[in-house]
Amino acid sequence: MTIKEKRVDSRLPLLLLFWGILFFSASTIFSVGTARAGDREDAREVVEKSVWMLEDIEGDAHFEEFRRLLPQAKGIFIVPHLWKGAFVVGALGGNGLLMVRDERTGEWLGPGFYTLGGASYGPQVGGEVAQTVFLILTERGVTSFLSNNFKLGADVSVSIGPMGKGASAATANLSADILSFSRSRGLYVGATLSGAVIGVRNDWNRAYFGKRVTPKDIFIRGEKAPAEAKKLIEELEKIGKKEKSASST
User: Fold this and answer.
1) Which sign, positive or negative, has the C-alpha torsion 14, 152, 130, 218?
2) Are 113 and 46 a contacting pair, CB within 8 Å?
3) Given the DSSP bridges, would you call strands 158-160 and 178-188 parallel, antiparallel or unpaired?
4) Cα–Cα distance measured from residue 118 to residue 93, given in angstroms and rounded to the nearest whole number
5) What confidence tens digit (pLDDT) does each residue in 83-122 have?
């Protein structure tokens, strides 16, 4: 899927910083408050866009190592639209969903909804919207998502995954709890996801499941997701099976 974009002027990145911080703060407040009327539709939109993103990744040569590592992953966190802006001080923000593999059955559990936000500092300019997906490789990585919020690079380790055709996992830090893979357009220099905070969107989880649920309800007790999540699960299984088949030949 092509990411639509437009150039940003010198004022927009500063507004994005304010928006990013406000966005995360508001999301955290909403997560323990009353759900809005549009929360279910917002959550469904993230599911739909995540499916589109996975469909694109399935045939994207730059995600070759992502596809190879997916069958080994304990979970996957997808952020279809991660907004970034910077002008010396940067901000990023977006909503995403988590899927966790059941250790006993191998089936995918979820989705559960989260928000990602933060600020970064350094020599950076410009703005962009990115599609970002995180492979969760360790139990520690999965456990972090069961808390109300946690910080990448502090509570869990995060590393950039190997990207590009022919890229090797040997070039990545596979000892990290989480690997991130992104594709984007636009001018953005020096950004890092280390330091970003991920928080539970209890409001969206409640709206999507039709009742109050916690991450433990979804990923440990196996709360059954609405039927519309079936396509998301099928796409994950499709990529995984294709990679297993390719590696066995």
Assistant:
1) negative
2) yes
3) parallel
4) 7
5) 876 555 567 789 999 999 999 999 999 999 999 987 654 4
